[in-house]
């Protein structure tokens, strides 16, 4: 099955121009670019999410992960409850300033490649909590690759976001887009 | 509704309040039964005595301390009795727009102490509840701890200390409980800026230095 799908994928001709490290090493050969596509295809269908759940949005995360919406269809079913085994962190719920160093440490402990999903209004912008205690958007602490709006987002929105993230993972053109501030390559300050 | 609540004259005491008054006598500075809630004010120096009496009296038997919290009555000229017009006037000015916001004047501090510490008591035998209040002045926000009466008061008093800066004398471990140890100030006081963030993790990224959204 998997081989068949790779074959189907690789026969598509509308591939992007690659200027990646690998393609430079292989002289931009057909083999290198196809290999990279295959690796990215494998990555996008085998997310190991780490649910960093702190608040009410968690209910919708559980609902998404449950059998009715079945996140397993997208290959992201198996949550790992240690960041060292995860490559995708769902930040779900209100992040307070007191919790911010812990979230940063979780992000730092994840092995690369890694992606961050900001799940809900609280993590994206502080949401309803415009006050002294809540971080006004986790993009002030760690890079964010995908924002899912809603308070809380419906499972459909989460699945839509996941599909968009998969598309992004498939088409990432730089070698290490998860590095630095919003993929800029600039290192994160301490 | 507020007028009713804030009248100075106490209404008819409820059956529970009658029992409490019979037990505590002169220690009750003020009492009121309003819409099913019974409330008494006591002097803060007598709080431990009063709590012991309420807990151990077989008629009252308040064996469960549900909550300890505080109220900041800052800017209310005669304390908790007639705050409504002032806050209404200020709110109307705030609503008029951002430009008039700085014109909001806090009224002079009134003669009554600024804070009130509130204890909610429940008897698991008789299922009656009582609200116990102590006024605490701003320049000396201290109060004896009631952890000796109900051990469960420990974290509740820490929370009150954390958010209001009220110091409970004799508390075994009076540290902040919600906020970081490095936090300066007590955020639920009315004079703490609502958006005065004190980040523990340094902020960075594109949104780090964005101005906060206006209301
Ligand atoms: S965005 Fe809404 S539902 Fe989600 S954690 Fe914040 S308040 Fe709760």
Q: Can you describe what's shown?
A:
- Helices cover 37% and strands 9% of the residues of chain A.
- Chain A has helices at 2-10, 21-25, 30-44, 57-65, 100-109, 121-125, 155-171; strands at 49-53, 88-92, 115-119, 146-148.
- In chain A, helix 3 packs antiparallel against helix 7 (155-171).
- Mean pLDDT of chain A is 80; it is low at 1-20.
- With 215 residues, chain B is an alpha/beta fold.
- Chain B is built from five helices and seven strands.
- The longest helix of chain B has 13 residues, at 84-96.
- Chain B is elongated, with a radius of gyration of 20 Å.
- Classes of the chains: A alpha/beta (190), B alpha/beta (215).
- Chain A binds chain B through residues 97-98, 100-101, 103-104, 130-133, 135-137, 139-143, 181-182, 188-190, and chain B through 178-180, 187, 192-208, 212-213, 215.
- The complex binds iron/sulfur cluster.
- Residues 55-57, 93-94, 120-122, 127-128, 151-152 of chain A line the site of iron/sulfur cluster.
Secondary-structure class of chain A: alpha/beta
Mean pLDDT of chain A: 80
Radius of gyration of chain A: 17 Å
Mean pLDDT of chain B: 79
- One letter per element, helices H and strands E, the order of chain A comes to HHHEHEHEHEH
Note the run of SSEs of chain B as H and E. Answer: HHEEHEHEEEHE
- Which word captures the global form of chain A? globular
Strand order of the largest sheet of chain A: 1-2-3-4
Question: Would you identify the regions of chain A where 5 or more consecutive residues have pLDDT less than 50?
Answer: 1-20
β-strand percent of chain A reads 5-15%
Number of strands of chain B: 7
Protein topology:
The complex is a heterodimer of chains A (190) and B (215).
Chain A: H1 2-10, H2 21-25, H3 30-44, E1 49-53, H4 57-65, E2 88-92, H5 100-109, E3 115-119, H6 121-125, E4 146-148, H7 155-171
Helix pairs in contact in A: 3-7, 4-7
Chain B: H1 2-6, H2 15-24, E1 28-34, E2 37-42, H3 47-56, E3 64-72, H4 84-96, E4 115-122, E5 129-136, E6 142-144, H5 153-164, E7 167-169
Parallel strand pairs in B: 2-5, 6-7
Antiparallel strand pairs in B: 1-2, 3-4, 4-5
The complex binds iron/sulfur cluster.
Iron/sulfur cluster is lined by residues 55-57, 93-94, 120-122, 127-128, 151-152 of chain A.
């Amino acid at each position: 099955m998997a081989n068949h799908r790779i074959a189907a994928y690789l026969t598509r001709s509308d591939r992007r121009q690659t200027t990646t490290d690998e393609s430079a090493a292989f002289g931009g050969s057909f083999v290198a670019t196809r290999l990279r596509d295959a690796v990215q295809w494998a990555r996008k269908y085998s997310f190991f999410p780490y649910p960093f759940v702190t608040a009410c949005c968690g209910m919708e995360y559980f609902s998404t992960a449950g059998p009715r919406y079945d996140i397993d269809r997208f290959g992201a079913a198996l949550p790992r409850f240690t960041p060292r085994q995860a490559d995708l962190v769902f930040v779900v719920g209100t992040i307070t300033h007191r919790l911010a160093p812990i979230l940063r440490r979780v992000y730092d402990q994840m092995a690369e490649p890694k992606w961050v999903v900001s799940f809900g209004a609280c993590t994206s912008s502080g949401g309803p909590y415009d006050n002294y205690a809540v971080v006004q958007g986790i993009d002030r602490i760690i890079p964010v690759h995908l924002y899912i709006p809603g308070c809380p987002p419906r499972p459909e929105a989460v699945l839509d976001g996941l599909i968009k993230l998969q598309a992004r993972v498939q088409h990432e053109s730089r070698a290490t887009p998860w590095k630095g501030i919003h993929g800029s390559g600039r290192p994160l300050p301490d | 509704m507020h007028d009713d609540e804030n009248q100075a004259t106490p209404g008819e005491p409820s059956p529970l309040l009658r029992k409490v008054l019979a037990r505590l006598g002169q220690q009750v500075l003020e009492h009121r039964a309003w819409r099913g809630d019974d409330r008494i004010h006591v002097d803060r120096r007598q709080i431990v005595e009063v709590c012991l009496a309420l807990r151990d009296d077989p008629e009252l038997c308040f064996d469960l301390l549900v909550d300890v919290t505080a109220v900041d009555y800052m800017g209310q000229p005669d304390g908790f009795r007639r705050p409504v017009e002032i806050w209404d006037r200020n709110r109307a000015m705030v609503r008029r727009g951002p430009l008039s916001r700085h014109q909001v004047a806090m009224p002079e501090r009134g003669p009554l102490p600024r804070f009130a510490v509130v204890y909610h008591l429940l008897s698991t035998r008789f299922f009656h509840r009582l609200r116990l209040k102590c006024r605490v002045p701003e320049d000396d926000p201290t109060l004896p701890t009631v952890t000796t009466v109900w051990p469960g008061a420990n974290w509740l008093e820490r929370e009150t200390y954390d958010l209001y800066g009220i110091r409970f004398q004799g508390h075994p471990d009076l540290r902040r409980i919600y906020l970081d140890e490095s936090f300066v100030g007590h955020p639920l006081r009315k004079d703490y800026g609502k958006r005065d963030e004190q980040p523990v993790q340094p902020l960075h990224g594109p949104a780090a230095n964005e101005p906060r959204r206006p209301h």
